[in-house]
Amino acid sequence: MTKRFVSIGECMVEMAATGDGTFRQGFAGDTFNTAYYARRVLAGDWTVSYFTAVGDDALSSRMLDFMQGHGVDTSQVVHIRGRSPGLYLITLEHGERSFSYWRDTSAARALADDESRLTAAVEGADAIYFSGITLAILSPEARTRLLDVLSRAKARGAVVAFDSNIRHRLWPSQDDLREAIHAAARVSTLALPTVPDELDVFGDVDQDEVARRYAKDGVPEVVVRAGSGPALVVWPDGKAFIFPDARVIPVDTTGAGDSFNGSYMAARLLGDEPGEAARKAHATAARVIQSYGALVEV
Predict the structure, then answer these.
(1) Could you give all domains of the chain from N- to C-terminal order, each with its CATH number?
(2) 51 in helix, strand or coil?
(3) For position 248, what pLDDT does the model report?
(4) Which of 11, 82, 83, 136 could form a disulfide with 107 if both were Cys (CB 3.0 to 4.6 A apart)?
(5) Which of 271, 4, 201 is nearest to 193 (CA)?
(6) What pTM value is reported for the model?
(7) Which residues are identified as catalytic?
């Protein structure tokens, strides 16, 4: 019987540095990147779907063709007349990236405007993934609508995974940001936060405190990533620090966390224990950061 993984969020037009002063156009976005890497791992009896909203322009069509060409189902994507995808540009310095965005009128901002379509997109899904960026681009009403739908999915037994993926510029205030993360945690069964972002927003002192805060919000499994440092993995039966390969020298860290998340979730869905899933996720991320752009073959 086919199982289904659904990722919800915004895919954008990506202009990625190639290392020689030029840029390559592609398509990427945190939640699509995660779906892309989950697809690489999950067996053929899994359908990996992406739920978003796109426009009716040529770039939207090319984006959907790109997704489908990489094995990601787009049958539930919403099409909005007169809209188009957002765009971002990656600037690199010593392997670390910074971003410039053009997304104010992105079609994806309307992905949760229609509750019936949103409900249909996740109906029967075995695993659902969303992020803090997914929440940030929505209106407050649409954000509540999405969280309500995810809460119902959790209640029926679906895995609901959340990466806070904090982008301060997308939020009107720190209070709104903190409130949204707590609300997201309460509908999730797996959290994949990153330090130091979480420490900065919530005043946590270390990875353990981040994990405890998510546990207080009811999340049974938490993976606290720390970039080139060890990931803290906490689950009901255990706890472990899983270290990445320190010998890897990054070329471009774009998509590192997303690839970790996709690989980790896929490994867990296929039956791996949390510690082993984290080791596999580190290995995937290590391969990703040695190439340019968010999406690479692994």
Answers:
(1) 5-288 (3.40.1190.20)
(2) strand
(3) 72
(4) 83
(5) 201
(6) 0.93
(7) 258
